[in-house]
Amino acid sequence: MKNTVKNIISAKGNTKLTMLTAYDALFASLADEAGADIILVGDSLGNTVLGYKSTVPVTMEDMLHHSAAVVRGVEKAFVVADIPFAIAHKKFDVLLDASARLVQEAGVDAVKIEGGKKMAKKISKLSEAGIAVMAHIGLEPQQVMKLGGYRKFGKTDEEKQTMLDDAKALEEAGAFSLVMEMTDPDLAAEITREISIPTIGIGSGPSCDGQVLVCADVLGFTQNPPKFVKKYADLRSQTLEAYAQFIGDVKLSNFPPSK
Ligand code: KIV
User: Fold this and answer.
1) By alpha-carbon position, which residue is closest to atom 8 of ligand 1?
2) Helix or strand holding residue 178 (H, E)
3) How many Cβ atoms sit within 10 Å of the Cβ of residue 226?
4) Ligand 1 atom, smallest distance to 112 CA
5) Distance 181 CA to ligand 1 centre (A)
6) CB-based burial of residue 30 (10 Å sphere; 0-12 exposed, 13-18 middle, 19+ buried)?
7) Pocket of ligand 1 (CB under 6 A)
8) Ligand 1 atom with least separation from CA of 45
C-alpha cells in the first residue's frame, strides 16, 4: 500500500523513517523495492546528475521532468520534490503554481521548501490549498552563494534559538515533517523532542526521527562525499570496471561472441 502523510507522521516515536534521493525511474524503483519510506527528488539533482556545481541552477522544468520519472518508478514510497532555487521567495501565487505543477503534472505526493519561519505563512497557505509540505532548515544548500560554502548550523546560542523557533513555526504552519541538514546533533535532538512532526536528519546526528542520504553517496558513485556519509556500496569502481571490460572485449573482438 502507498505511504501517506498519515503513515509518515505516525512513524514518530514508533519507527525510524528512511528517505533516499532519486532522480529517475530506475533508481527510484530500486529505492522503493528496497523499502525506503520516502523518495526525495532533491534539487541535489543539479550537482548529482546534471553536472552543475550546486543546486542553484536547477529549474522548475528540470524538477518536473525528473519528478515525473521518479513517480513512474515508484509503487509504495511517498514521493517528495524540492521547490527549486528562489521560487519560494517569490509571490505566493508563483510558489502555489510551482507546487501545484509538481503535484498535478509530475504526480509527487508533497513538496519540500528550504527556509525557516520566514516561510511559515506561505507553508500555511499551501497547506490550506491541500499541498503537503516538508520543511528544511539548518544548512540550506540554495543559500550557498550567500554563505560562500557549506557549514554546520546550530552551534552558537543565537543560531540554536533561531532554529528552535523556526522548527516550531514550521510545525505550527502545517509542515508534515522537517529536514535538518548539517545541524549540531544536540540541537537536532532537542528540536526532535520539542516538535510533534517527524524530523529527518542529514549530517545531524542519530537522534532525528529519520535519516536521508543522497543515492549517489550511499552507492559510492560520489568521489568526495561529505564526512557524515556512510558508503554502502562501491558502484563507482564496479561501474568503471564493467565499462572497461566491455570496451576491452569490443576492441579485442571478444564481444559479441562469434558463432
Ligand atoms: O536536494 C537534496 O538532496 C536534499 C537532501 C540533501 C535533504 O535536500
Assistant:
1) 42
2) strand 177-181
3) 14
4) 8
5) 8
6) middle
7) 21, 40, 42-44, 82, 179, 181, 202, 212, 214
8) 1
Where do the domains of the chain lie? 5-234
Whether the model pTM is above 0.90: yes
**CATH level 2 (architecture), domain 5-234:** Alpha-Beta Barrel (3.20)
pLDDT per position in the chain (259 positions), as tens? 999 999 999 999 999 999 999 999 999 999 999 999 999 999 999 999 999 999 999 999 999 999 999 999 999 999 999 999 999 999 999 999 999 999 999 999 999 999 999 999 999 999 999 999 999 999 999 999 999 999 999 999 999 999 999 999 999 999 999 999 999 999 999 999 999 999 999 999 999 999 999 999 999 999 999 999 999 999 999 999 999 999 999 999 999 999 7
Q: Choose one of 214, 221, 228 to mutate for the ligand 1 pocket test, by most ligand atoms within 8 angstroms of C-beta.
A: 214
User: Among residues 181, 190, 194, 241, which one is catalytic?
Assistant: 181
Distance CA 194, CA 164 (A): 8
The Cα 234–Cα 64 span in angstroms is 30
